[in-house]
Design a protein that fits this description.
287 residues; alpha+beta; Nuclear Transport Factor 2, Chain: A; five-stranded mixed sheet; 6 helices; globular; NTF2-like_dom_sf; Polyketide cyclase; signal
């Protein structure tokens, strides 16, 4: 019943907004930050919170999850398909950069998953959504870290643009161009915490993982970085490339400390073939 209720609420909101046009929001609603609206919307998948529905612009909701149809109708169909009472949502981290909010979330959503979600706002309403999802690992990585644990506190907000520039340079220089001999410039030796489920801590752990993949004939290629977003000491990079023979979306979250990369979380998702897309917006459209 819960998932059907949520879908009905979204459909109702769409009809109300379409018929009433743009209306002034109550002051209590307008005073809520876009970050809090995003957390409320994601959490409503589990709770059925009705107010969170109003944070979406029902007349303009562009969907970039290729397995979901466009607009609120597509989101409603997804919710209806969920097994009853199965949805669980835990937003671990949330960040705001201009009109964008991005989150790092634990889901039980057709099985346990880890995901990054990115929302774009216009005039206080959500108008666009991108995401990247992967199955949650049942085991800790070689250094004993999960895919979501670690530091959550945001600081150094005055360094946001500097930190974004650092990560943009790292992604372009090391990941896209493959200049691995320059990798050490971006790290403070082995003072680096890794949350990838198969890679150990430290620059040494990362270097070893790259060597092992090469020995096994596994290629991890970043072809293009689409955007870099951040708040303070946290920066998210969204890129595309290939993992082995599969086209892949790379979402990498970095924590920066004293001008160096200090911590890393990621989600890699295979991009489904175009004939399976349920919308035509593209995985990286408008980024």
């Amino acid at each position: 019943m819960k998932t059907r209720l949520i879908a009905t609420l979204f459909a109702s909101a769409a009809l109300l907004n379409a018929s009433a046009g743009v209306q002034a929001q109550p002051e209590s609603t307008m005073s809520i930050s876009n970050k809090d609206k995003t957390i409320a919307l994601l959490t409503s998948i589990e709770t059925g919170d009705q107010q969170a529905v109003g944070y979406i612009n029902a007349n303009q909701y562009v969907q970039h999850n290729l397995a979901v149809a466009d607009g609120l109708a597509g989101f409603g169909e997804l919710l209806q398909a969920l097994p009853k009472g199965s949805a669980k949502v835990n937003v671990v981290r949330a960040f705001e950069d201009g009109d964008y909010v991005f989150t790092h979330t634990e889901y039980d959503f057709f099985g346990p998953k880890i995901g990054f979600d990115l929302f774009r706002f216009e005039q206080g309403k959500i108008v666009e959504h991108w995401d990247n999802l992967t199955v949650r690992s049942a085991q800790l990585n070689p250094s004993g870290h999960s895919q979501t644990d670690g530091i959550t506190e945001i600081n150094d907000r005055h360094k946001t643009e500097v930190n974004k520039a650092l990560i943009a340079n790292f992604v372009e220089t090391v990941l896209v161009k493959g200049d691995y001999h320059k990798m050490a410039e971006f790290f403070d030796g082995d003072n680096y915490v890794q949350h990838n489920s198969v890679i150990a801590d430290g620059l040494s752990g990362l270097t070893h993982a790259i060597e092992v993949m090469a020995e096994q004939g596994i290629t991890m290629k970043y072809d293009k970085n689409h955007t870099v977003l951040g708040e303070g000491n946290f920066v998210l990079s969204i890129s595309e490339g290939r993992l082995g023979d599969e086209p892949t979306a790379y979402y990498d979250l970095f924590r920066v400390e004293n001008g160096k990369i200090a911590e890393h979380w990621d989600v890699m998702e295979t991009i489904i073939p175009k004939e399976q897309w349920k919308n035509s917006n593209g995985k990286f459209g408008n980024l």
